[in-house]
Write a structure and sequence with these properties.
Elements lengths: L12 E4 L5 H11 L3 E6 L14 E3 L5 E5 H4 L5 E5 L5 H13 L2 E4 L13 H7 L4 E6 L14 H7 L24 H24 L4 E5 H7 L2 H10 L16 E5 L4 E5 L3 H10 L14 H6 L1 H12 L4 H8 L6 E2 L4 H6 L1 H5 L3 E4 L8 E4 L23 H7 L4 H9 L4
Parallel strand pairs: 1-2, 1-6, 2-5, 6-7, 7-8
Antiparallel strand pairs: 3-4, 9-10, 10-11, 12-13
Helix pairs in contact: 1-6, 6-7
């Protein structure tokens, strides 16, 4: 009989009080690495994203199930229980669970869990080893601490939208959000990193700690080179469409039948590109010989390149350049990306069986490939409250006690 490989976070227990995206993305990362994540949801309603549709999952006949696909993006490998934390017995139950947990993750408003006795100070007194991660829009202090924070408004506030989209005065110009809630996703990733760091620190100290994660902080952090450029010069970057501010040519180009993306990052790649298209002299031209020169003379370079690239189709350019170590590729739709042979070879699409005659849930594989402690997919995104009885029994509650809690409205 084949045994499952060991997981990196085997034995780590996570009490997940979060909902929507940033918190659940964090806890899904921990669950994928082997942590036992118990997702606590509101009775009847559950996580908000269960209702964020369309699109919805479909049954075997292709009909909408009213189960929003959004929820499935960030809740696999978890067990769902329903607990009313506004109910005194529900609060007592969650405190009991926190006593045995390694990690609590929550994304309520600042101070919102104190009234329930589920804040960090209250739970730390019961479990000093507890690692407690709070995710809010603006952090636990500062003039905006009490504000609600959402991905879209943080994309706007942190400056991301000011550098995303076509420049003012060009067709379609103006600020744009990213096509994915990237601040939420990045916050989930930063939060999971912070939790792993705190787990490692606990090995040395025996003590847990508090983690304060703010979407705005993360939004500022992921400005990366754009922030560094502003801090170095005092000049705020602007929108430039798909043009890279510090590299050239590094953008999309129109072809005979569509578009091709060139991502030339050094002078050697540019020289190979020029040779491949029959224009080796461009690489010796003083205006284009170095990346800095190409950035300064971008308009002149594009005036030469654009008519040449329109002479062939996208696939022809990729076939010509890809074996010359010149980074290039198509601009795919999501459907085309999933159909790409490299994506398929890497097993990026996964199928998570649900049992009970329900169709499997399709998902995207975790990109972390660990050789000794790989990610394991052992649970599809759970139905609301699917594991309530199972989890409470593990905490020593018998069926009569569970039924009494249910009758009282606590679960």
């Amino acid at each position: 009989m084949t045994q499952s490989p060991p997981t990196a976070l085997a034995g780590i227990k996570v009490l997940d009080l979060s909902r929507v995206l940033a918190g659940p993305w964090c806890t899904q990362m921990l669950a994928d690495l082997g942590a036992d994540v118990v997702k606590v949801e509101r009775p009847v309603a559950g996580d908000d994203t269960r209702h964020w549709g369309p699109p919805f999952l479909r049954d075997e006949d292709g009909n909408d199930t009213r189960e929003a696909s959004y929820f499935t993006a960030c809740n696999r490998n978890k067990r769902s229980i329903t607990v009313d934390m506004a109910h005194p017995q529900g609060q007592a139950l969650l405190r009991r669970m926190a006593c045995e947990a390694d990690v609590v993750v929550e994304n309520f408003k600042v101070g919102g869990l104190q009234q329930y006795g589920l804040d960090y100070d209250s739970l730390k007194a019961l479990n000093p080893r507890l690692i407690y991660c709070s995710i809010t829009g603006f952090g636990q202090d500062g003039p905006y601490a009490e504000r609600a924070g959402y991905d879209l408004m943080v994309q706007a506030m942190c400056g991301l939208m000011s550098i995303t989209g076509h420049a003012d005065g060009t067709p379609g110009g103006g600020p744009l959000k990213a096509g994915v809630a990237v601040i939420d996703v990045f916050t989930g990733l930063y939060a999971s990193n912070a939790i792993l760091a705190a787990i490692n620190a606990r090995h040395a100290t025996g003590q847990g700690q508090y983690i304060d994660m703010a979407l705005l902080d993360v939004g500022m952090a992921v400005l990366a080179n754009q922030a560094a450029g502003f801090l170095a010069t005092g000049t705020a970057p602007g929108r430039a469409g798909n043009v890279h501010p510090s590299l050239a040519p590094y953008q999309d180009f129109a072809t005979q039948d569509g578009n091709v993306l060139l991502a030339i990052g050094n002078d050697g790649q540019f020289a190979r590109f020029c040779a491949a298209i029959g224009e080796p002299g461009w690489a010796q031209d003083a205006r284009f010989a170095t990346n800095t020169a190409r950035v300064h003379h971008r308009a002149a370079l594009l005036a030469l390149m654009e008519p040449v690239l329109r002479q062939r189709g996208t696939a022809d350019w990729i076939a010509l350049l890809e074996d010359k170590a010149v980074p290039c590729g198509p601009i795919n739709t999501v459907a085309q990306a999933f159909a790409d042979p490299q994506v398929q070879a890497r097993g990026v699409r996964i199928e998570l069986p649900r049992g009970d005659g329900l169709p499997a849930v399709a998902g995207v594989a975790n990109p972390m490939r660990l050789s000794a402690t790989p990610v394991v997919y052992h649970r599809a995104p759970p139905a609301l409250g699917q594991h309530t009885d199972e989890v409470l029994e593990q905490f020593g509650l018998d069926s009569a006690r569970i039924e009494a809690l249910r009758n009282a409205g606590a679960i």
